[in-house]
Amino acid sequence: MLKNVGSLVADISDDFERCNTSLKKEYLKINISKFNEVAGKINFFKGTFGTGYPFYVIDRNFNRELPIISEQLRYNDELRNKSILLQSDEWKCEECLRDYGSMMADLKCKCKPCPNIDNELKPRKVINRLGDLDMWFVCEDGKVNECSLIFEYLLSENGFSTSDKDPVKTINDFKRISDDLKNGKMPSIMLPIDTHIIEESELTKCIINVRSETLKYMKGEYTPYVSIHPLSLRKKWQKDDTGYNFVHDFLNSFTEYNFNGYLEERLLDTRRFLVRTFDVDTLYDILKVTGVESTRRRHQTPELEEVFKEKVMSWKK
């Protein structure tokens, strides 16, 4: 049984965040490389890219040291304190998830109306404190469904799993990963993964639209927003209720692999446009204003601003 789940998950996440060793960097690289290797085996493959952690904390070649982000530790404390206030030794959701978890296609939908749940310890709120990889597969137009079937199978065969699939197992597995890294041992299991599939033409359109949206911000019209709405693997493939703000992801963490042809040209064009039109501080302001409040707090970390500025300066080359 998982006791005091809020404190437990907060402790696990703290250990993972504080571990900024070369071993952890190598482990992250192994996960990313394995995903790219699996994706490259599929027909209609047009490249991959990563967003979120670790892509906003490190240069693409992993030459920098991993920073310890104080906002993540504060975020974990928030969960820990809520758990203590609830004075709940047992996680009410655990038995339900073990018995019925495989039948819950969408945890947010199934858990929200439950009268027995502690609102601050909903399964999604708990497992969101644990790290995962956000990786995107770019496919030929019209081939999303065809690619998703074989991709789901190949990911599972290579040890990848979503955090939604079995939240209790996710917590236990992540503790193993964190403990191994803390003890100087390479983990034998992969990180939880959020996998998304997007058509080449949609991604290309999003990249091009970043230009006009950033110009509107400079005119004081509104917060830049470009919706990117992929097919995402949760327990099964689904379209989430809303898309992601691609402007934020593009500036914050977009890291491409194996792009070529027209897609690569448009990516490079947009990056050159941004660095010729805006200074680096303005671009960093756009990054922050397009993120949620926790993102703005996270980017008060000096090392993250340094990584961003180095990345942007490389776009001039």
Explain what the structure shows.
The chain has 317 residues and is of the alpha+beta class. The chain is 53% helix and 10% strand. The chain contains 14 helices and eight strands. It has a six-stranded mixed beta sheet with strand order 6-5-3-2-1-8, sandwiched between helices. Strands 4-7 form a two-stranded antiparallel sheet. Strand 5 (231-233) and strand 6 form a beta hairpin. The protein is globular.
Write the layout of secondary structure elements.
Blueprint: H1 5-18, H2 22-39, E1 45-51, H3 70-86, H4 93-100, H5 107-111, H6 123-127, E2 133-139, H7 144-157, H8 167-182, E3 193-199, H9 200-218, E4 227-228, E5 231-233, E6 237-238, E7 244-245, H10 246-252, E8 255-257, H11 261-277, H12 280-289, H13 293-298, H14 302-314
Parallel strand pairs: 2-3
Antiparallel strand pairs: 1-2, 1-8, 3-5, 4-7, 5-6
Helix pairs in contact: 1-3, 1-8, 9-11, 10-12
